Amino acid sequence: MLELDGSDGGGQLLRTALSLSAVTGRPFRMENVRGERPTPGLKTQHVAAVRAVADATDATVDGDERGSETLAFAPDGFRGGDVFAEVETAGSAALVCDAVLPLALALDGTLSVTVTGGTDVEWSPSADYLRRAKLPLLREFGLDAGLEVKRRGFYPAGGGRLAFEIRPSNLARLRLRSRGALRGVLVNAVATESLSDANVAERLRDAAVERLTATSGPNLEAKRVEPTAEYVPASSPGAVVTLVADCEEGRAGFVGLGKRGVPAENVAAEAVDAFASWRADDAPVDARMGDQLAVWAALAGGEVRVPAVTDHLRTNVEVIRAFDYDVAVEPGGDGGVLLSPDL
């Protein structure tokens, strides 16, 4: 059994280990899970991710409990059908999906995955980041998967629902060295129905478009900005704005999450300013995407230029290499390049 140390990193290390264990069939034991976090051990979304991948692979699992700092996982093949994962309260449903998606490379049949919990919460990608940024990028390289946002879930109640259809896929090598021309920017503002009287969704949308125009100048024509605003039912009030940059070669997403007492205009500025910082470089993906693409670069091969070599990325690469994938990060300039040999 492969022995892994999870102390120097967060949930991404566990999700990567789960994905690679499922695809390769190699069992692992991870000690000191999230050991250097203020509250170490598994949180609710980590438990849900373990159980979702275990259900899809008929795995034998030990330690899949909240607070556990040791997890043993031994997969036993794949099955199609339905998988249901429940994240208590507003734990991230999106991050559960992050662990399950790579299974597409080893499936024999369609896997339907439903995850409940927080769809738009702190420390995780928004539902629209998954739907508009990450999945379209991976589809360009051969991933066959779709996502429906059945219900939004905000902090603290959660109660959101994401439904994935994941089909057997063969990925081409990732080749993302420079982004090329910016084709357009999607601006998707979402707020709960309880915030409609304050026009929160429209304010998020309009503030984001106005700031985009002011900071980008003539290089971003108004016709290339596609703004939307919508109101949705949810168990807790909340709002989120997601910007997605669509490039000739690459895709990047930036999220502003509403917080009590913070004006919608400030939330929009957070997302737009992150976009502006990314656009100053030539990386084809954002930093979050770069961290998450490491496992895909290992499985499919290829090169991905990332805007920054983060600690998350370094520790994630260490876990990938433990599964005998020859992936590495070569720092250079303002970012780095994920490298993986031809497979």
Strand order of the largest sheet: 1-2-4-3
Q: How much helicity do the residues have?
A: 25-40%
What are the low-pLDDT stretches, counting only 5+ consecutive residues below 50?
Answer: none
Secondary-structure-based class equals: alpha/beta
Examine the secondary-structure arrangement and name the CATH architecture of the largest domain: Alpha-beta prism
Provide the succession of SSEs. Answer: EHEHEEEHEHEEEEHEEEHHEHEE
Q: Could you name the CATH homologous superfamily of the largest domain?
A: RNA 3'-terminal phosphate cyclase domain
Could you tell me the mean pLDDT? Answer: 94
**How many β strands by DSSP?**
16
Q: What is the chains' assembly state? A: single chain
CATH class of the largest domain: Alpha Beta
Q: Work out the helix count.
A: 8
The shape, in one word, is globular
Quote the distance from N terminus to C terminus.
24 Å
Radius of gyration: 19 Å
Subcellular location: Cytoplasm
Catalytic activity: a 3'-end 3'-phospho-ribonucleotide-RNA + ATP = a 3'-end 2',3'-cyclophospho-ribonucleotide-RNA + AMP + diphosphate
GO molecular function, one term: RNA-3'-phosphate cyclase activity
InterPro entries: RNA3'-term_phos_cycl_insert, RNA3'_phos_cyclase_dom, RNA3'_phos_cyclase_dom_sf, RNA3'_term_phos_cyc, RNA3'_term_phos_cyc_type_1, RNA3'_term_phos_cycl-like_CS, RNA3'P_cycl/enolpyr_Trfase_a/b, RPTC_insert
